[in-house]
Amino acid sequence: MKKSAWLPAVIAPVVVAGAIAAPALANAASTPLAGSNPTAAEVIASVAKSSDAQYSGKLSQTSDLGLPELPTGSGGSSLEGNASDAISMLTSSHTARVYADGATKQRVQVTEQLAEQDLIRNGSDVWTWDSKAREATHVTLPSDARKSFEDGTTTPSDIAKQAVDAITPSTKVAKPTSTTVAGHDAWQLVLTPKSSDTLVGSVQLAVDKQTGLPLRATVQAKGQSDPAFQVRFTSLQYGAPAARLFDFTPPSNAKVTTKDLSDVPTDHAGTGEHAFDRADAPTFSGSGWDTIAELPAGTADASSAGADATALLDQLTKAVDGGRAIQTSLVSVYLTDDGRVLAGAVPVSSLVAAAK
Q1: Per-position pLDDT tens, the chain of length 356
Q2: Sign for the pseudo-dihedral over CA of 36, 39, 41, 44
Q3: What is the distance between the alpha carbons of residues 112 and 132, in angstroms, rounded to a whole number?
Q4: Largest CA distance in the chain
Q5: What is the pTM of this model?
Q6: Residues 6+ apart with CB under 8 A from 35
Q7: Are 56 and 239 a contacting pair, CB within 8 Å?
Q8: H or E stretch at 312
């Protein structure tokens, strides 16, 4: 699956996970919720028991970041096409089919303009498939891997897990209230940053009362009435999906890339020298909701971009001290003259200051 697919997966960690330090929830309930007045910690802890859930559902993603709508993949260069594709992911509504049979069998199916992108995990085998590019990737996970494999997809569970790490003194957590999502009764939590610098107004999570499965995640920008980003189930049926949904064989004419992590210890699967390339991994500065992620020099190499791609970059960004930047309602991105990329749920001025 292309890294540009469901691009808010990149933004969500900056807004939530990368922004907040993990709390101690040792005393939180890990059993099904009892009674009608659970605490916020009990609702959050109930999410853990949803890891073995079996279900089929349809997800809807919407974004309203104040970006201009551009034609998808309209440019002549790959850089321009990728940029316009990314913008499309942030300015349009998108849907996906999701299937889960416990912690080690999942499938996410995204269909866009007669093309399909899939992420399938079946035990230690993980496949990604892009029908438009006719490209597949096969990853063999460590045999004892238990965590769900993530590759650019975002579900309510993803954001809820990141928001669990957000219960710190930097965040106000409201008392859970009742709501309904896709026909299922849920508890809704509202997390409000105490920081005055962040662009995030609140993060709202809806968690199924019976199963603990996150059903909806909403990120609200300060001063904006409509959600800046939301992903939610529009339909959800519990029960084991058909086993065939977790089997995948690439077409004979597909380009297949393989990555074998079977000999990499589980706790090093994402960081070992034999795992994925981490040379371009971000570093972080700041704390709480004001955390800033920085990618190293060379990440934003505009020297090889064509005239069309350069014009698109100029259209989307504005010149600032030391580079170019864009500030949406929820997140800012700063491209420095030396090729670094800084991003965070903060104003551009904070990124410029952090880059010096």
Answers
A1: 443 333 333 334 333 433 332 332 333 334 455 457 888 888 888 887 788 899 999 999 888 887 655 544 444 444 444 444 545 555 567 889 999 999 889 999 988 777 888 999 999 999 999 998 999 999 998 866 554 444 445 566 666 666 666 676 788 889 999 999 999 999 999 999 999 999 999 999 999 999 999 999 999 999 888 899 999 999 999 999 999 999 999 999 999 999 888 776 555 444 443 344 455 678 999 888 899 999 887 766 555 555 666 676 777 788 999 999 988 899 899 999 988 999 999 999 999 999 98
A2: positive
A3: 10
A4: 63
A5: 0.76
A6: none
A7: yes
A8: helix 307-316
Nearest Cα to Cα of residue 159 among 315, 294, 6: 6
Residue 356 tokens, joined: 């010096």
Structure tokens, 168: 């710190």
Phi, psi (deg, nearest 5) at residue 185: -70, 140
